[in-house]
From TrEMBL:
Primary role: Methyltransferase required for the conversion of demethylmenaquinol (DMKH2) to menaquinol (MKH2).
Lineage: Bacteria, Bacillati, Actinomycetota, Actinomycetes, Streptosporangiales
Species this protein is from: Actinomadura fulvescens
Protein name: Demethylmenaquinone methyltransferase
Catalytic activity: a 2-demethylmenaquinol + S-adenosyl-L-methionine = a menaquinol + S-adenosyl-L-homocysteine + H(+)
GO molecular-function term, one example from the UniProt record: methyltransferase activity
Broad class of enzyme this protein falls into: transferase
GO biological-process terms attached to the record: methylation
Residues in coiled coil: none
Keywords, in A-Z order: Menaquinone biosynthesis, Methyltransferase, S-adenosyl-L-methionine, Transferase
Family to which the UniProt record says this protein belongs: Belongs to the class I-like SAM-binding methyltransferase superfamily. MenG/UbiE family.
Protein's gene: menG
UniProt-listed Enzyme Commission number(s): 2.1.1.163
């Protein structure tokens, strides 16, 4: 996610696909308290399974340094810290970070940092693994964010991207698109924050396929790029290694 503390404003909450940082930040600020609950409701609890798969794929080890970008309230970051890794939960939403600091107050080896995905506030080669879940599609420049993640990863460092995707099965893909185009807008009508549902639908429909994202990761300098579908391809995990 693009982070920029100077961008925080209070006037707009609509996050259009041009991804103006102030709009996206305001949207996430407004949902911070209910964000984890809304995720579970929208995914039918699948978000917990996806987080478990991310934890397995990152394979955090004692003494490692892990960057969890777009970490929100830090729910996704805690398992890395519990595995013994020094973990940084980084996000662009001050509202999300404030909630995370409060909720994860007892977590060891976990710290919260406000930072810009396009200008990460870390030195080159800092982290053994870098991961971003459901945040890459929110950045203003996806390719630059992927390059920034590589810059702060050590040679041989691991990348794990968990993001919405597109079912490869044609029938499932059609049903998924119908849900995004008509199902989520219905939820938006009864939601206290309808813009977040509309944005989710629009950004998912506009997101590249698994193969196209893998190609962009490789063009950013990552090696051994591969992916694995979750929930029939509604979500995909992309893995890569920084060749140094």
């Amino acid at each position: 996610m693009p982070v920029g503390m100077a961008f925080y404003g209070w006037g707009m909450t609509r996050a259009s696909l041009d991804k103006q940082p102030a709009d996206v930040a305001a949207m996430f600020d407004s949902t911070a308290e209910r964000y984890d609950l809304l995720n579970s409701l929208m995914t039918g609890g699948q978000d917990r399974r996806w987080r478990r798969e991310v934890v397995r794929a990152v394979d955090a080890r004692p003494g490692e340094r892990i960057l969890d970008l777009a970490a929100g309230t830090g729910t996704s970051s805690v398992p890395f810290a519990e595995a013994g890794a020094e973990t940084v939960a980084c996000d662009f939403s001050l509202g999300m970070l404030r909630v995370g600091v409060r909720r994860q107050a007892g977590a060891e080896r976990l710290r919260f940092v406000a930072g810009d995905a396009l200008r990460l506030p870390f030195a080159d080669g800092t982290f053994d693994a870098v991961t971003i879940s459901f945040g890459l599609r929110n950045v203003a420049d996806t390719d630059l964010a992927i390059r920034e993640l590589r810059r702060v990863a050590k040679p041989g460092g691991r990348l794990l991207v968990c993001e919405v995707s597109h079912p490869p099965n044609g029938l499932l893909a059609a049903g998924h698109k119908l849900h995004l185009r008509y199902g989520l807008p219905l939820l938006a009508r009864v939601s206290s924050n309808p813009d977040s549902y509309r944005y989710l639908a629009e950004s998912t429909l506009a997101w590249p396929s698994q193969a196209a994202l893998a190609e962009r990761i490789q063009k950013a300098g990552w090696a051994k790029v591969r992916w694995r579908d979750l929930t029939f391809g509604v979500v995909a995990l992309h893995h890569a290694i920084n060749p140094g």
